[in-house]
Amino acid sequence: MADRVCLVTGGNSGIGFELCRGMAAAGFHVVMVSRGTERGQPALEKLQAEFGDSVEMMLCDMSDLDNIQKLHAEYTAKFDRLDVLFNNAGAMWGKRKLTAQGNEMTFGVNHLGYFEMTRTFLPLIKTTEGSRIINTASVAHRMAHLRLDNLNHENKWYSQWRTYGNSKLCNILFTRELARRLEGTSIITHCFHPGVVRTRFGSGASGLVWLFWPIFRVLMINAKRGAKTGLHLALSEDAGSSTGQFWSSMKRRKGNRHARNDDNATILWEKSEEMVNVRN
Length: 280
Ligand SMILES: NC(=O)c1ccc[n+]([C@@H]2O[C@H](COP(=O)([O-])OP(=O)(O)OC[C@H]3O[C@@H](n4cnc5c(N)ncnc54)[C@H](OP(=O)(O)O)[C@@H]3O)[C@@H](O)[C@H]2O)c1
Fold this sequence. Notes:
8 strands, Rossmann fold, eight-stranded mixed beta sheet, 10 helices, binds NADP nicotinamide-adenine-dinucleotide phosphate
């Protein structure tokens, strides 16, 4: 059995890949979660060339929440602890699509994926001393116009940026509410904006994003820098001295007023619970 275990969703690419590297370098056994072997295997080979068997891969497509139960079964058959969970897998979709459970894809993967991962692994996280849950959010939450009565963006004109921004606001609200619900435990949870990072992010986007992306890319930071704040949240005493906060560039940030709305955080939690329960 490994001493300390870390699980990273979206671990095969971009920020997630560097989170895997950073955690392996810090001495953790790392479970890199990828949605498929085609993109997962080359990433795994790179990480294993550096860290050997202390990195392994498990598969899970977060657009089908039932896969999370399968991932959990595979994980718990092997490990009896989870020290750090990084909810990181996410994307922006150019066109409105649906998940296996019929939720809008951006909301489904970027928020419900984090929600269901956390809910499913929480019993194990609770029995692991000093555990942390770190969520990759974004300053894109400033573009949000979140309608809690229409989380699936039904019967609306679809804006990829607005929908993405909404999902990232959900990440911050989710982190706040999670921290509130974990009061009295030693579990720390935070979320962070990684910076504007040169990754594969945006490859599923449409329209002008594609046109201007090559120009933007020159100005972006690399993924190693993008992972820095996330690693700080997982590893530092500083981050362990508080919980439920939004960070960027290694510092606690306020987020905008929508990101500090605790009533909405509670409503989002309850609605998310209803949505993931529908399939049970
Ligand atoms: N890049 C930025 O500037 C930036 C800024 C703020 C926040 N973020 C956030 O950072 C996180 C990581 O993004 P990134 O920039 O590193 O982009 P990336 O290189 O595209 O990585 C995204 C990861 O998420 C995975 N993923 C996407 N859909 C998935 C699904 N349905 N099931 C399982 N995994 C899925 C991808 O898998 P595949 O490799 O198979 O596609 C990939 O591993 C996201 O949450 C994003 O919102 C990024």
